[in-house]
Write a structure and sequence with these properties.
Elements lengths: L10 E7 L2 E7 L5 E5 L4 H26 L5 H28 L1 E5 L2 E6 L5 E6 L3 E7 L2 H5 L3 E7 L14 E6 L2 H13 L1
Helix pairs in contact: 1-2
Length: about 190
């Protein structure tokens, strides 16, 4: 067959997350080895962080609220701020959870993250230099962990945590996923 007439066929994976169809292209001959999402505990951890922030704000402004010079309108304003912080925590946590998805293919790691929109990060195995497992205090309480993906190029965005190119948050068995990725890197 003439090279100029060859048709390139691309495989598209369609994923429905929260009723929204998300597509990403597989490279020629690429196969999905595993796909997974963060655990629902991610929502609870993020809500707990927002509640703790609201409590901290409350304690910060408590001396002003106890003074007799504080007008009643300030009480209302402070309570409104607390309610908004907690409401934002709940909404943002649910939106983030619904958008987050991870794929391990035989050629790369694909991470989809977002709140209202989404970003798809593709990290080829040849560029990964290390995978670090994290189990912070909240992750230990909720029995999940995270994997931070370090690359040879280093961090490209300040949005990522711990200088990592990407991270897999709130996953059940980070050691097993780390081993799976290491195995794919060796092939």
């Amino acid at each position: 067959m003439d090279e100029s007439k060859r048709i390139n066929v691309q495989i598209i994976i369609s994923v429905f997350i929260g009723g929204i169809k998300i597509d990403f292209l597989l490279q020629k001959g690429e196969k999905v080895i595993s796909e997974f999402r963060p655990q629902k505990q991610m929502i609870y951890m993020n809500i707990l962080k927002m509640v703790l922030l609201a409590v901290l704000l409350f304690l910060l402004f408590l001396p002003n609220m106890l003074s007799s010079k504080t007008p009643n309108s300030m009480y209302f304003t402070l309570w409104a701020i607390y309610v908004l912080v907690i409401a934002w925590g709940i909404i943002a946590s649910v939106l983030k959870y619904r958008k987050e998805h991870y794929w391990v293919t035989d050629k790369r790691l694909v991470i989809k993250k977002g709140y209202l929109g989404y970003n798809v990060i593709s990290i080829p195995y040849a560029k990964i230099s290390d995978l670090t497992i994290s189990r912070n205090f909240l992750e230990q309480i909720f029995k999940v962990g995270s994997i931070y993906i370090q690359t040879l190029a280093g961090q490209i965005s300040s949005k990522n945590k711990k200088g990592a190119e990407g991270y897999l948050a709130a996953i059940n068995n980070p050691e097993e996923i780390q081993e799976l990725i290491f195995k794919q890197m060796k092939q």
